[in-house]
Amino acid sequence: MIVSLVAVLLIGAIAWSGAVAGFQSLLGVALPLLAAVVFVCGIIWRITCWWAKSPVPFAIPTTGGQERSLDWIKPNRLDTPMSNAAVVGRMILEVLLFRSLFRNTSAEVSSVGPRVTYFSSKWLWVFALTFHYCFLVIFIRHFRFFIEPVPVCLTWLEFFDGIMQVGVPRLFMTDMLIVVAVLFLFGRRLANPKVRYISLANDYFPLFLIMGIIGTGICMRYFDKVDIAQAKVFIMGILHFTPQSAVGLNPLFFTHVALVSVLLIYFPFSKLMHMGGIFMSPTRNMRCNTREVRHVNPWNNPNAPYRTYAEYEDDFRDLMAEAGLPLEKQPEDVEPAAPAPSK
User: Fold this and answer.
1) Pairing of β 105-110 and β 115-120
2) Residues 32 and 110 in one domain
3) Cα angle: 269, vertex 272, 274; to 5 degrees
4) Which keywords does UniProt give here (predicted)?
5) How many structural domains is the chain composed of?
6) 170/237 same-domain check
7) pLDDT confidence of residue 342
8) 5 in a domain, yes or no?
9) pTM assigned to the model
10) Cα–Cα distance between 62 and 79 in angstroms, integer?
11) Continuous segment of H or E residues that includes residue 255
12) Which end of the chain is more exposed for a tag (fewer CB within 10 A), N or C?
């Protein structure tokens, strides 16, 4: 955790120092363009050269309900999807509402017994959903810096996001909610011993990076103000490949841009790619029709010799009985083999 925190602080310090030293073009033009190229190419590489080439010879969907079998047994069409329509419905609920996370449970070993106790865990689902939707709304709101004139839908989105009209400039609800959500996700990694044990540097680094992006963005809006009009002119110049002067822009702006650029570069090669990986996951996008269709491994060698379990048990029955392993036939139930005919 400390290494990840130091790395993010170092990135921010380098970006701030570079902006003060006059490297605005490097931080505000070259780095974002490089990040955009790496982001797009990295996602394409991850999908085409990694996931698309991963063989899936068998049906391995994650199931959580009754599969379709007899007519009088009611199947669970979403948790055990048997048709393409059911798979699409399951994916929609998974992507938009995090359905599997909603059904998540926690397990603890009770001191009485001892025994394992399972209980519902909805807080993680609430804050994870809050974080992702707030991040999405903030991302969409930033399109006003890239589009001229600003579409009416973005104006309405800003209106509803800041409908409480708290302070000047107007306080956006998503700004506050995403801070609460990301602090909960970070605190959970520290407070839960099991999660803390399995957390690595590549878990903390994007978390600290997102905290830095959120923090610098909030500071630019509510505390250390940035000239929004000049920032938009600068960004529009990058989009039209006619870079504008960055003189007068707050160094905090370039720190924010640098952190976002690092996140874009890091994104395709990290666990954050679960955003796209969920669509490529065979545990989610496959039908559960193993009772209707026999799935045969296409790599099986038809000429390879195979031993049945009955043959295996015949060879090792005495040893298995001695070890106490379950047997279909006990040694005393097996008829002795007929003696070989004499020559």
Assistant:
1) antiparallel
2) yes
3) 105
4) Cell membrane, Membrane, Oxidoreductase, Transmembrane, Transmembrane helix
5) 2
6) yes
7) 59
8) yes
9) 0.82
10) 8
11) helix 251-266
12) C
d(CA 310, CA 327): 10
User: Do 56 and 199 share a domain, yes or no?
Assistant: yes
User: Quick check: 165 and 154 in contact, CB under 8 A?
Assistant: no
Phi, psi at 120, each rounded to 5°: -70, 145
CA 246 – CA 254 distance, rounded (Å): 10
CATH number at residue 96: 1.20.950.20
> Are the C-beta atoms of residues 237 and 243 closer than 8 Å to each other?
yes
Q: Which two tokens stand for residue 290?
A: 């193993």
Tokens of 38: 């790496």
Average pLDDT over residues 250-267: 92
Indicate whether 278 and 317 sit together in one domain.
no
Is 80 exceeded by the pLDDT of residue 336? no
C-beta atoms surrounding 92 within 10 Å: 12
Whether 61 is in a domain gets the answer yes
Single-letter amino acid, residue 122: K
Q: Which two tokens stand for residue 217?
A: 């963005």
Distance separating alpha carbons of residues 131 and 185, to the nearest angstrom = 9
**Number of Cβ within a 10 Å radius of residue 304:** 6
Q: Is 299 helix (H, G, I), strand (E, B) or coil?
A: coil
**Cβ 327 vs Cβ 313: under 8 Å:** yes
Nearest one of 56, 11, 7, 16 to 35, comparing CA atoms: 11
Same domain, 152 and 188: yes
* 3-state SS assignment for residue 247: coil
* Consecutive H or E run containing 173: helix 173-191
Q: Which domain holds residue 28?
A: 1-285
Q: What amino acid is encoded at 144 in this protein?
A: R
Q: Nearest to residue 106, comparing CAs of 130, 87, 122?
A: 122
Q: Band the pLDDT of 28: cuts 50, 70, 90.
A: confident
